[in-house]
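Box S2. Input/output pair 1.
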Amino acid sequence: MGKKKTLIAIPIAIVMVVILFSFFKKEAVPVELRPPEKQEISKAEFIPYTTPENASPITGLACENNKMRPFAVMYSGDAAAREWFSNLSLADFVLEMPHRAVHGDPRLMGVFQCNTPEVVGPMRSGRVDNISIAGSLDAIFVPWGGSSIAKGVLKRGLVDHIDCNGEVAPSGSDGVTCFRRQDIPANNMIKASTSISKLIEKAEQVGYRKETTLRGYSHQGDLPLDQRPEYGRLRVKFGSRSIGAEYLYDKATNSYLRSIGGHKDIDYATGKQYAPKNLITIVTKKDTWLLETDYKGQGLEDPWEGVDDTHSLNDSGGYPNMQLGDPWFDTKFEGEAKFFLNGEEIVGTWKRAKGLANQFEFFDASGEEIHFVPGQIWMHVLGHDQKTSYEESAERAAEKELEAAKKEVEEEMAG
């Protein structure tokens, strides 16, 4: 990340005195030490970046729509639908996470603010955690249907939304706002799509607030080319039935080239390989809603509120509840996270204050706020039975070991 740690210079004589003093604690002959001038342990130094006045609060890039509320559109995760993914590369933020309790296969959610493509999809239904994360970004949630519990949340009016399947008003199932495209040779489910410009019109008709209240993320500049590492590879395993995703760091563009099953993952509409500038991976507890669980007794809301008996029986144990700080059914509001940007792996944490409008906060291991590189953020949320792995060049691994040793010395001398 471009962090620079300065090793405190210690005269050899003083080091010898310190060592002897620690081994031979002679109370009768006190030794007065004059340690080096105390220096504050250096904190993370971020690459300078001048944020444009009209910067997106998500990407940090100049954006004509920087004050517009984003739209969080649910994408399918099915293997057959992926080759038709359209304009996901234009999203400011992408979420990828499990959509069933019994496996870790993901669905995706593209959050659009700066770009307003006319075709977005293939779409599918949403889950409670999708709704929660859309709320954290002050986005209008746009699913094509949903699980019974997710629809129950929408019916209670807890989040602004437009349902492309027309099950929970306000509906976008007018054939214009949401539609089934006719230009691809696929089944009707894969043809399910929407248009961001039409969603903007529908939101105005409904009377939703137009301007975003999102504070957004902090940003830094791209690491200079000559300081970027030569190699980095992140593997994300979604579930037992899927092969997962792989990201190869591209030094020239300072981005992460995405592949699925050993093949480049290409956006059908743009023809470009997905190449987010920032990656987040979070592994957290994945549980499910069960009829026999007393949620109110835990101080939580009842997930079955507004769900009829038939769906309650059918859906008990069927859908995942990721412990990721949703304001209704979660007890976990912080946890471990890993961040990949500027060619570096950063181990840190995520936090979120309880409340739908509260955005996620991200920190490194020293408690410093993560400064993202300007550009798309792609966040993976995995169940506790899943994993990620990262490998880097042997040279960079050795450099990091040395940096860690220097930091340890600094902390010991400062303490």
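Box S3. Input/output pair 2.
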Amino acid sequence: MGAVAANQGKLATRTAVIADRNEAAMVTRGSEEAMQGAIAMYEEIVAQGGWTKLPNAKLDRGAKSKAVVKLRERLVREGYLDLDNLGVATPDAFDDDLARALKSFQYNHGIYTSGKVDSRTYAALNMPAEHRLFQLQDNLPRVRAYGEGLGSRNILVNIPSVQLETVEDGIVFARHNVVCGKLERPTPTLASKVSDVTFNPYWNAPASIVARDILPKFLEDPGYLDQMRIRVFDGVGGPEIDPRTVDWYSAAPDRYHFRQEPGEHNSLATVKVNFANKFMVYMHDTPHRELFAINARYESSGCVRVDQVRMFVDWILAGQDGFDEAQFEMITASEETFPMPVRSIVDVRFMYLTAWATEDGRVNFRPDVYKLDGKEFVFGQPEPVAEM
């Protein structure tokens, strides 16, 4: 693990195309072996007493104090710096080597790679070694299950890291920020294959969203449905109705079909990526792209919104007859719904990994946002959790 720092780069706040870096994906054929190696390493760290809690000090390049010595010792303990780094001439000085090691630590914990000890970095540094070992052990069955049957081209969505990787032969082609389900409407975990990409999709609002979100807004503002181009039908495939003729205080919302037309207000925006699953979830674009710039991207009702969706769709359909990159703008500008079957095999995994190790030597940790660690959770629909 001493060489781990050499493998890291700046954690992008937007999509980063990283194929030229030859970075291993979150889950590959070698992930289980990598996890076993990481577990053995952290078992040794725990057996030796773990690491000492750092003093609460905001540290940056140029700082010189005993707290810097403690930080240096802490990063050596977990392998981000070599042992001989403790013997530098001025161990109490925050130098470039220490900054690079700290950036590597931040990268592996999903923290902006500032090279500074901010509040998030401080909290991650002080997480006990015993808890990190527990996370690795708890996530080993997940890594094993998510990797089973994984083909050469795959899409990996990790909910705790709110990121998606497009992967070719175990190497990351691109990494995208995503928005996942709210704590009270969590995103499920699953294994599937992409079936089609639908341009300019209709949005068929689930009854739960109709009841929780759409109807309250309509009852407050009778023009809301027209403004959002939402039409209401008496059941799926039934006749269209005037929503103002229904007593929504007594009517059952699941009797009616609320459908939003394609266009700029559509909740799915330009495109939807479908795959068979019992949870009725999918990946899609969004008109609210500002959400991709925040850290805690848990704002959806269970589906996954993908940043830089054009790049994502171009990768899915790459090499397929009947599609080239120039067509994306032309198709979406038409506002006509256009489904395109995906002929190649692209595996999909929605995963819940709070710890994972990669073949290129990185050990990664993320917060347990849905409170699932220790519950033997692998696949399925998580129970709603209270707001943190």
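Caption for Box S3: Residues 18 and 174 are 6 Å apart (CA to CA). Confidence is low (pLDDT under 50) at residues 1-15.
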